[in-house]
Amino acid sequence: MNRTEFMTHLAALLQDIPVEERRDAMQYYNDYFDDAGVENEQQVIKELESPQKVAAKIKADFKMSGQDAGNGQFTETGYQDARFEQMAAPSAGYAAEDSARQQKNDRTLKIVLIILIVLVGLPVALPLAAGILAAVFGIIAGVFGVLLALVAASFAIAVAGVSLVVAGVIYLLPELAVGLALIGVGLIISVIGVIFLVGSVKLCAVAIPGICRGIVWLCRRPFQRKVVA
């Protein structure tokens, strides 16, 4: 027997009481089923035992007009049964238990999802992170190489200029014109080499500390806590 069958049978058994009392009684038991919830429908039917017993109780209480109706009576708010008022509390307990169970299931599901994401993402994230780090360090190494190459090239130009000056001095005695030309070109190249060398050294003095500070900042960034304004 389900709720519909129970209430239909009960309504048929209450045909011999006034319409108003019958309506109040039906409303009361409908509300009681609603409060208990669909999941507790069979438990309510089991506790009520049968439509015949409920109908007999309603009729007995109705006949005791002006007297204490025992476990229940009709009032302005409908038929009230102390036995069922005591049963109403468990329905609230069922709802609280279901809510707690649902919250526990949600937490478990979240934990499982996080574990799955970590397990699936690690094979992709680790190589990707390693590739990014390798690219960053490759760029840094390339910048260092360019700076050192500038210094080396500038130094080589200065040395070449000095070498030409020395060669020009050697050629002064046998070939005065050639010697003077070599000395002149050597001096020009030496000056250019020295200028480039000084510039390269200054550039390194500014760029290398800046790159080092940037590397330190990048390494410390993941461990810095966000400041909440």
Characterise the protein shown here:
This protein has helices at residues 3-13, 19-36, 41-48, 51-63, 82-170, 176-220, and strands spanning 72-75, 78-81. The model is unreliable at 66-79 and 83-92 (pLDDT under 50). The chain has a two-stranded antiparallel ribbon. With 229 residues, the protein is mainly α. It is rod-shaped, with a radius of gyration of 49 Å. It is built from 6 helices and 2 strands. The longest helix is centred in the middle third of the chain and has 89 residues, at 82-170.
Break the fold down into its secondary structure elements and pairings.
Layout: H1 3-13, H2 19-36, H3 41-48, H4 51-63, E1 72-75, E2 78-81, H5 82-170, H6 176-220
Antiparallel strand pairs: 1-2
Helix pairs in contact: 1-2, 1-4, 5-6
Task: Provide a short characterization of the protein structure.
The protein is mainly α and 229 residues long.
Question: What's the end-to-end separation, in Å?
Answer: 64 Å
Beta content comes to: under 5%
Extended strand count: 2
SSE ordering: HHHHEEHH
Structure classification: mainly alpha
Count of DSSP-assigned helices:
6
Poorly predicted residue ranges: 66-79, 83-92
Please state how the strands of the largest beta sheet are arranged side by side: 1-2
- Work out the radius of gyration: 49 Å
